[in-house]
Design goal:
Elements: E1 2-5, H1 11-23, E2 27-32, E3 37-42, H2 47-51, E4 59-63, E5 83-85, E6 88-90, E7 96-100, H3 107-120, E8 124-126, H4 144-157, E9 161-164, H5 171-177, E10 180-183, H6 191-197, E11 204-207, H7 214-226, E12 232-236, H8 252-261, E13 266-268, H9 270-274, H10 280-289, E14 294-298, H11 316-327
Parallel strand pairs: 7-8, 7-14, 8-9, 9-10, 10-11, 11-12, 12-13, 13-14
Antiparallel strand pairs: 1-3, 1-4, 2-3, 5-6
Helix pairs in contact: 3-4, 3-11, 6-7, 10-11
Bound molecules: phosphoenolpyruvate and manganese (II) ion (MN).
Length: about 350
Amino acid sequence: MIVNMSEKATEQEIEHVIERVREAGYQPHVTRGVERTIVAAVGNGRRHEIEALLVAAGVENVVAIAQPFKLVSRQVKPERSVVNVGGVSIGGAEIVVIAGPCSVESREQLLSTAHAVKRAGANMLRGGAYKPRTSPYDFQGLGLEALKILREAREQTDLPVVTEVMGTEDVDIICEHADMLQVGARNMQNFALLRRLATINKPVLLKRGPSATVKEWLLAAEYLLSGGNDQVVLCERGIKTFETEMRNTFDLAAVALARDLSHLPVIADPSHGTGKQSLIAAVSRAAVAVGADGLIIEVHPCPERALSDGAQSLDFAGFEKVVRAIAEPLRRRVGSARPVPVETKA
Ligand code: PEP
Ligand code: MN
């Protein structure tokens, strides 16, 4: 349930409503917007006691939350959230570009990539230390050694670092070395991991599961917010369909839909979304056109030698070209109409 306070509600009236929500057996979540305050009653309580707040002083109306996800919904927080990752704002005016190798393979490989992507305009660095591989015989990541290399790259370039966490046992050590923790697609519904990440003081990048609906994805994010961590960025990385030419099917509309349903920033991963170097620029532009707040792109000094995901990794020159292609304004005429600005960042 949501209690919308009137624009003129006093602090005392808001406090009273918060107290009543608690007494009714719910957890109060307060969103103080520019114009008005919203008090959401989350959990299982006595609904009629919240409905009765309609007559309390300072209350405009009381409505049910239509979606199963509550705190991530725009009904509870209509204004868009901005997530700060080591000084980089995701969800603001700028399209944030996160780039780096699929896996950290060596100090040389990561440091050269970090400097190259920074030169090309990236705002953040990615690199896997603990890798979720389909086969147990494939390269599993360098673990702690990779975390140390990532930290060194951060010190040299000033680029905040995101890296994947696969299990609860690695959370503390990754928090010590990285600026943001990535929940990989395969772990989107690892509820023990989500519950643990809800308690940390670092932002989380939550990838959509390969077979997850948008609703399931947002409910996974709800685990983080309801547990106390609202520093969450969503990432569309492609889903499984009957299509076989591409590694996954990048779900472009899901980027727009997630931004419609949720206030959380949404970024796109065209690398895993397609599995093909040649499609990164086109899919990146499309994602930005539908409102993506950022991109995460795999880059390797020599993709043909990469220990994971070489086919979808760009080399340094390729990445530089892609960044320019995304930034370049649309120069083509569309039908016979004169171009008008289109609002994609509602
Ligand atoms: C990755 O980012 O390298 C990765 C494994 O991504 P995903 O979980 O989307 O497959
Ligand atoms: Mn990868």
